[in-house]
Amino acid sequence: MDSQPLFPTLAPTIEWRDGKLLLLDQTRLPHEIVVEHVADAAAVWRAIHELRVRGAPAIGVAAGYGLCVAMQDARALPIAQFRAELEKRAAWLDTARPTAVNLSWSLRRMTKTARECNAQDAAALYDALVEEAVRIHREDIALCEGIGEHGMPLIAEGNGVLTHCNAGALATTGLGTATAPIYAAHRAGIRFNVFADETRPLLQGARLTAFELQQAGVDVTLIMDGAAASIMSQGLVDIVIVGTDRVAANGDFANKIGTLGLAIAARHYGIPFYVACPSSTLDFHTATGHDIEIEERSETEVTHLAGRRIAPENIKARNPAFDVTPHALVTGFVTERGIVHAPFERSLKRLFAAECNAA
Ligand code: MRU
Predict the structure, then answer these.
(1) Are residues 158 and 40 part of one domain?
(2) Is there a binding annotation on residue 191?
(3) Which of 25, 78, 204, 312 is the most buried (most CB within 10 A)?
């Protein structure tokens, strides 16, 4: 599917063109705009694992197309063999990253499509898979629009908005999730400013959020992660909006490491704390935040900065990429169907009854 980038200077986050998967390499931003052609299953797995495509919704879209790429060399197989390979390759792609549920959500949709498709040969089944991947992509754009529409009224003239990591256009194929209300308010002419946490260790806030908001003409100020509580204490933040990688059935949610500390600080200072959450990130299979697997990444992301060691040799380091925030610290979930308030388990199940029953 041909996609339009949000900013004229950028390539789209993900593009499916003439049967090829093209990804904007997010590890090179903001200095270089490099589009990678991801040509086989191993390259898809690596692109997700190494965060060249990242952000829960973008991972979901990339996985749909990625499974098509992974099956391209199997199109001449007898259909039963194609189906068996599909299940195997989908299960393997699902191991690329553990926390963002969009990865397994998208791959489950793709394998379900294949199981329910009565195509007579592998080539026809492959075409049905591409159609489903395009549907996932189109839906992602619409989910972001819906979050923007419902979240925009949360931002008032003169507000300070704080966000963490990148839950922006680069993390999706549309307006972003946490950034969708920001872009919608900006387009509506509301004047406000955004504080973007730099987001150690991989600096998604500095490299991606600050970059895309600046490109869009939004008033954005980059701060160190450690400065967020102090900025709140000075009365400069009226609302916190973050994205999420997985929302458990009870409303506990995982997001980039540092989110929990922000939620605690926001509660201390009486600042509303919202989570932008498309239905593709709801996980009714997971009862509470305790059941969410947290990705632990390489220690070198902590001991090194821009390729240079900054810590002593042989120091022990930990690098959990995400944390879990308990639902009690959440003011509301901004979804494509409206804002969900406590009690979250009941409200989420009511608004997303179809998704919950299908889970
Ligand atoms: O490790 P990343 O960059 O994939 O982490 C991304 C985040 O934590 C985002 O906040 C989350 O995926 C929501 S993206 C709309």
Answers:
(1) no
(2) no
(3) 204
- Does ligand 1 come within 6 angstroms of the Cβ of 100? yes
pLDDT in tens, 216-273: 999 999 999 999 999 999 999 999 999 999 999 999 999 999 999 999 999 999 999 9
Q: Which is catalytic among the residues 225, 245, 252, 323?
A: 245
CATH number at residue 126: 1.20.120.420
Is pLDDT above 70 for 302? yes
61 in the same domain as 157: no
* Pocket mutation for ligand 1, best pick of 141, 256, 260 (most atoms within 8 Å of C-beta): 256
At residue 358 the predicted structure's pLDDT band, cuts being 50, 70 and 90, is confident
pLDDT tens sequence across 142-165: 999 999 999 999 999 999 999 999
Ligand 1 contact, 243 CB (< 6 A): yes
* Same structural domain, 193 and 233: yes
- On the question of pLDDT at 2 being above 70, the answer is no
- Coil, helix or strand at residue 326: coil
Same domain flag for 189 and 296? yes
Q: Please compute the mean of the pLDDT values over residues 107-131 and round it to a whole number.
A: 97
C-alpha angle with apex 31: 28 to 33, nearest 5 degrees? 60
Three-state SS at 165: coil
Parent domain of 162 = 148-358
For the question of whether the overall pTM of this predicted structure is more than 0.70, the answer is yes
Instruction: Taking each helix axis as running N to C, give the angle between helix 56-71 and helix 79-93, from 0 to 180 degrees, rounded to the nearest 10.
Output: 150
Do residues 321 and 200 share a domain?
yes
Name the domain count of the chain: 2
Q: Please report whether residue 80 resides in a domain.
A: yes
CA distances from 286 to 79, 186, 247 (A): 34, 35, 8
- Residue 302 tokens, joined: 């902590």
Asked if residues 256 and 294 have their Cβ atoms less than 8 Å apart, the reply is: no
**Residue at which a domain ends, from 111, 145, 179:** 145
